[in-house]
Write a structure and sequence with these properties.
The chain is of the alpha/beta class and 441 residues long. The chain contains 16 helices and 17 strands. Helix 8 crosses helix 9, helix 9 packs parallel to helix 10 and helix 12 runs parallel beside helix 13.
Length: 441
Amino acid sequence: MRILLIQSYLGRKEPPVAPLGLAVIAANLAGQTVKIFDPNIQKDPLTASREIIYSFQPDLIGISLRNIDTTKYSDIFLYYKHFVKYLQFIACHSNGAVIAVGGSGFSLCPRQIMSDNPAIDYGFYLEADNSFPRFVECGLQPEGIRGIYFRKAGEVVHSGAAEPADDNVIPGPAWDLVDLKPYLPYQHLSSIGVESKRGCAQKCIYCTYPLLNGSNIRLRDPETVVHEIKKLAEEYRVQRIFFTDPVFNLPLNYAESICRIIIDSSLNISWSAYHHPEFFSKEYMELALDSGCSDFYFSPDAATDKGLKILGKSATVSGLNRCLDLIAANIRVKASFNFFAAYPEAGCEDYQAAKKFIAYAKSALKDRLTRYKFSFIRLEPGTPLAYLTCGKNVSPAFFLPKNMPSLRRLFYIKNKNRCLNFKLWLKFWLGILFGKRNVIP
């Protein structure tokens, strides 16, 4: 069977991200003729899309919808609107090929997306590492395969939740099917991803990771992970990778084992990842540096114990401060910190605490503070914050914006203090006016 896997067109030029998810799916399609295509790296995305369909003549077209929007209030852009247009374009030129859609963006609103887009024949909910290959093996018949949305008697039906994939059985990404050269200039912007684990046991009230990959952490074999990195470095000239894990240093001993294997392999690679401040030790920090960590990312989101508790974070202010002190004491370390400008029950004291933390970080790290950011939370379906804000009976369509006004209403932008809200609003728009990308310049 001829299968064309496409990373959905974003609708604008921005730093590209290599299609890790599609490369993993492709690696599971042994015996099939597979091509991977990313319109976002083409000079003329639509013309290139049409040409590859006509030349390849696929029987099945799989489109990955990774994100509905940027989730950034300071860079607000609705990918979904362009996905809908791109889907219609692909359908017009598909020559009768079956069209399937999956990806994390699709999985957040699967039934609504299927209902709104009749061009989609099949939708793959959550991880499709097992369901998509089985669907192909069964001659594109969904019956008996869990994790698929399809149409029956004019209705969208779901075959039931699929079991999470065994990450140590799934082959590594089929990077041989992807031309990585266009992504290499953007390695410093996390264009090349490596996945060492799936699932997240944290309980952040705004986050979709537990919904998309489960709350049980599934670890890949560390040797396999490092072998994958080595292959990227030696065969594709990749110099820097980004670990796509929700939290890299949890479990800590697992992260340490990956670092040690990288060191023992004499692998010359730079990497970055998101870290949890409570599991950040001096020993781990030095091990990570020796293995090539070029930037430690942190997203504490709040700088008061009250705020951290409200957001469902397992971090503490004392742990965050201890982490910053460790970083400040080592001149080799670069780090970044993200905070939210608004969340339930947040007030002036929470905002001032975050500003104080960043002021100290700027003073202590100087140019080693690679980024700091205040942002607004994008409400996502199925999260505790969405239920708290909108109620449990809100329609799924509410979280799938069709235009910019409906997207803007999905951001949590108000604190309990009106004066603070006005101050944030003023600072935000002044920042946009003068080219700043932080909510608080």
